[in-house]
Design brief:
With 217 residues, this protein is mainly beta. The chain is 12% helix and 33% strand. The chain contains three helices and 18 strands. It has a six-stranded antiparallel β-sheet with strand order 1-2-14-13-15-12. The protein has a five-stranded antiparallel β-sheet with strand order 3-18-4-16-17, with helices on one face. It is globular and about 45 Å long.
Length: 217
């Protein structure tokens, strides 16, 4: 694992073969520092990295865009976006074909839908407002190089980036493909139980990408 910061963007780089899972938070949502503490208290293996995942909407509960959790639970609700997933060989990939559904990823360990696609070109799903991509907001994204996964999270307001600015930065650090995830007050990057990015009004989220230590031997 390698961590670094450039301006207001925090980066973590891990191998694409590193154990990365998609975990559900509590049904009522959860701050990721609290999630780390809960997993530790329950005696579960604790991840070295937690980062918020995809978009959700509160509507008397919550509804979340299409995903398949590591435990096999599937949420079949598409926003017409793009999918980040871990394939049958354990490699993290980003699918660049717009309009797939979670049913197309039944063989994957996990899959999560989001938008806009940042690289190789900026493409948004119809459900994402143009202003969300064009305005400066705190951002969360995942980018891929030939060998590594790069997690990117900006500091909270008043810092922020447009999607085009974030895409440019991810290209500069070596990514050839990248996907925007939920941002704003959802943007949270937790390393060894401590939130790294500054976020003054964070909100509870409903899914997290979790990176675990590689087991040797």
């Amino acid at each position: 694992m390698k961590y670094w910061k450039e301006k207001a963007v925090h980066f973590v780089k891990v191998s694409r073969r590193t154990p990365i899972e998609l975990l559900p938070c509590l049904p009522e949502g959860e701050w990721l520092t609290r999630m780390y503490d809960r997993l530790k208290k329950e005696g579960q293996e604790v991840p070295i990295i937690l980062m918020n995942a995809n978009f959700f909407h509160l509507d008397g509960g919550y509804s979340i865009s299409g995903m398949k959790y590591s435990n096999g639970t599937t949420v079949d609700r598409s926003m017409g976006g793009f999918y980040l997933y871990r394939d049958v060989a354990g490699i993290v990939r980003i699918d660049t074909v717009k309009g797939r559904t979670i049913a197309d990823f039944q063989e994957a360990h996990w899959a999560v839908e989001s938008s806009p696609l940042l690289l190789p070109g900026l493409v948004a799903s119809p459900h994402i407002e143009t202003t969300i991509a064009a305005e400066s907001h705190p951002r969360t994204a995942v980018g891929l190089t030939e060998t590594d996964v790069i997690f990117a999270v900006t500091d909270g307001r008043p810092s922020g980036l447009t999607c085009r600015e974030l895409a440019h930065i991810l290209r500069q650090v070596g990514c050839h493909i990248a996907l925007n995830l939920d941002g704003g007050r959802s943007s949270q990057l937790v390393i060894h139980g401590r939130q790294i990015n500054r976020q003054w009004m964070r909100r509870k989220v409903f899914a997290a990408l979790a990176v675990y230590e590689e087991k040797k031997g």
